[in-house]
Amino acid sequence: MWIKIIFFLLFIFSIGCEKVEEIFREEDLLKRPDAKRCADCHKAIYDQWKKSRHSLSYKSETFKEKTENYRKIKCLNCHIPYEIRPLEEPKKRSDKLHDGINCVSCHFREETNAMHGGYKVFSPPHPSKQDLDYKKSKICGGCHKKTYDQWLNSRSNKQCQECHMPAKKGSLIQKFPFQYFHLPKDVHDHSFPVPTPDQKDFDIKIDFDGMILTVYLKNKKIPHSVPTADNGNPIYYVTLKIFKDNKLINEDSHMITSKDPLIYNKEKSYEFYVFEEFDTVEVILERRLSWETEVRRILRKRFSL
C-alpha cells in the first residue's frame, strides 16, 4: 500500500496540481447530485447525515402530517432548501425532495461553482472554497431564526456547532487516493445531535409558603431557551412529587413549551398547591422532542423540609 502511495505522490508532483485537478474532476458533482453521490468520497459524513433529522426533513411522517401532506408551503424553504446562506431564508428546490436538507443544500454555491466548507483543502474531484462562516452560528440562522436570536441574546461565545456538530479527529474522505491528500482534521458530526441536558445545566430551588410550594428553575448553561423551536412542539415537564415518611402522597406537573420557555440565565417559577402534610419533595425535569413520543428524564432532585 505504501509503495502505491509513494508512486502516486511522485506522479502528482511530476505533473502539478492543476493537471491533477483536470484529470480527477468529476463534473456531475457540480450539478447538484443527491446525497448518495457524495458518499462515494465522504462515506463517514454521509452515514452520519443519514441518521440526522436533516435527512428526514421532508419525508418524515411528522413533517408530512404537520404540513397537511405538504400543502403548507411556507415550511418547504427550510425543509428542502436550494442553497443555504448565513442569516438568509433559503428558497425551496424542486427536485430530489426526499433528500431533505442534503449535502449540496449546505455546501454548494452557484456563484463560485464550488463546494464551500470550513477548511482550505486540495480537492481534485470538485473545486472547494474555504468559508469560515461554516464554523459560526450564523450559518444556522437562516432557518433556525428564533433559536439564533435567543443565542444572540445570551451573548455566549459558544457556537451552535460546538454542541450540535461536535468534532472528532478523522478523515474527511474515505476514497482512494483522495484520503491521502489531507492530514487528519476535526471532522464535525453531521448527525446534528441534540444533547441531553443534565443537572449541571440548571439551578433548582424551592420555597414553601402556606399551601403553595414554588419551584424555581434557571437555565444556566444552555445558551438559548429551552425548549426552543421555530416550528414543532418540543415540551419540557417539571413535576413535583410529595412524600411523607418515604411514601408518595401526591404529585403534579407543569408543562413548559417553546412559547413560554426557560430563557437562558433567567429564573422562572412554577407554583404547586399542597394540602397534605409532607416532609420531602422531589423535583423532576423531563423532555420530549418534537419528533419523539418518549419523555426522557433530565434530572431529579430531592429536598427535605
List strands and helices in order, with pairings:
Elements: H1 2-15, H2 17-24, H3 35-38, H4 43-50, H5 61-66, H6 76-79, H7 103-107, E1 108-109, E2 114-117, E3 128-130, H8 145-154, H9 160-164, E4 167-170, E5 185-188, E6 202-209, E7 212-219, E8 235-244, E9 247-257, E10 267-273, E11 280-288, E12 296-304
Parallel strand pairs: 2-3
Antiparallel strand pairs: 1-2, 4-5, 6-7, 7-10, 8-9, 8-11, 11-12
Which range best describes the helical content: under 10%, 10-25%, 25-40%, 40-55%, 55-70% or over 70%?
10-25%
How far is the first residue's CA from the last residue's CA? 70 Å
What's the β-strand tally? 12
Structural class category:
alpha+beta
What share of the residues does DSSP label as strand, in percent? 25-35%
- Strand/helix succession: HHHHHHHEEEHHEEEEEEEEE
Instruction: Give me the number of helical elements.
Output: 9
Mean pLDDT: 92
Radius of gyration: 25 Å
Shape: elongated
> Unreliable segments (pLDDT under 50, ≥5 consecutive)?
none
Instruction: Supply the number of structural domains.
Output: 2
Reported for the largest beta sheet, the result is: 4 strands, antiparallel
> If strands are numbered along the chain, what order do they take across the biggest sheet?
9-8-11-12
